[in-house]
Amino acid sequence: MNIEFTRHRRLRNSDSMRSILRETHLRAEDFIYPIFAVEGENKKNEVPSMPGVFHLSLDLLNAEIEEIVSLGIKSIILFGVPEEKDDVGTQAYHDNGIVQRATRQVKEAFPELVVVADTCLCQYTDHGHCGIVENGKILNDPTLDLLARTAVSQAKAGADIIAPSNMMDGFVAAIRYGLDEAGFEHIPIMSYAVKYASAFYGPFRDAAHSTPQFGDRKTYQMDPANRDEALREAQSDIEEGADFLIVKPALAYLDIIRDVKNNFNAPVVAYNVSGEYSMIKAAAQNGWVDEKAMVMEMLIGMKRAGVDLVITYFAKDVARWLKEDQQ
């Protein structure tokens, strides 16, 4: 047969050949592991919709962090689940709030671990929305002051990075101003710059006890059908002082991740959200999928799309698998 063609398979003909030519890699350092800190003592309660994810009281937190550090994970993101809530989310910006106490504790015991503080009000408000509510409407501008106060209190507690997740207009500018005025101009902002009003958040709202008590979040989170809007949102946040750009969710928005990476010279973070996690965990528990293979492929896809870091509940699992593969 006298034909000409290219033999691409030459570069795939052994494990070693494939390994040395692999373009995209996962490392434990790529992951930010979410922690849900709760009030009380001796509490390690599994979130029903998120197998392997727990509510942890502070007396059990250090043991969890020791495991995380031993796996080579360099960063966590702290979410707080307070016992008391009110209409303005007071516990979010209280200097003795659950995230503030958890941050102080972690930084004292593990000073080299990067602690990211989620900066929002929804876990702390009795109505479950990310801002001040008046006559059924979520007010943008009055909310900004509370977000700035929350960020400053978290920075005072020792947070290395502030991660505002509320999607209020001007939230990065307000937080940047508040941090700078309080002497925290060195603290970076990891903005949830591109956050969609997604159906993939259900298990997180179970974990954070943050389901809205009325309506939805579509007036401040983005329409999943929109692509150009993502670039407008990211551009605003960069201009207001964001140092990192988060795209959330990740799996259904890989095109958006690539757009953001191509258009902005800032680290891009994917949030591999609760629904993405729980779907795979449920399928794996039923024996329908190979969990390790599917998770690794999914995260490689996110890295290939352009992310620098991934917030993921799979961080500990993947770090273990990577260690096992190296042995």
TrEMBL record:
Catalysed reaction equations from the record: 2 5-aminolevulinate = porphobilinogen + 2 H2O + H(+)
InterPro entries per record: ALAD (IPR001731), ALAD_AS (IPR030656), Aldolase_TIM (IPR013785)
Residues annotated as binding Mg(2+): E233
Record key words, sorted: Heme biosynthesis, Lyase, Magnesium, Metal-binding, Porphyrin biosynthesis, Zinc
One of the protein's GO biological processes: protoporphyrinogen IX biosynthetic process
Cofactor requirements of the protein: Zn(2+)
GO MF, any single term: porphobilinogen synthase activity
Positions with a binding annotation for Zn(2+): C120, C122, C130
Record-annotated active site: K195, K248
Keyword Lyase: yes
Record CDD domains: ALAD_PBGS
UniProt-listed PROSITE patterns: D_ALA_DEHYDRATASE
Positions contributing to 5-aminolevulinate 2 binding: S274, Y313
Signal peptide range in chain numbering: none
Residues given in the record as 5-aminolevulinate 1 binding sites: R205, R217
GO cellular component: cytosol
Protein origin, superkingdom: Bacteria
Functional pathway: Porphyrin-containing compound metabolism; protoporphyrin-IX biosynthesis; coproporphyrinogen-III from 5-aminolevulinate: step 1/4
Cell inner membrane as UniProt keyword: no
Listed EC numbers: 4.2.1.24
Subunit structure of this chain's protein: Homooctamer.
Family of the protein in this entry: Belongs to the ALAD family.
Summary of the function given for this chain in its UniProt record: Catalyzes an early step in the biosynthesis of tetrapyrroles. Binds two molecules of 5-aminolevulinate per subunit, each at a distinct site, and catalyzes their condensation to form porphobilinogen.
PANTHER family xrefs: DELTA-AMINOLEVULINIC ACID DEHYDRATASE (PTHR11458)
Name by which UniProt lists this protein: Delta-aminolevulinic acid dehydratase
UniProt organism field: Metabacillus litoralis
Gene responsible for this protein: hemB
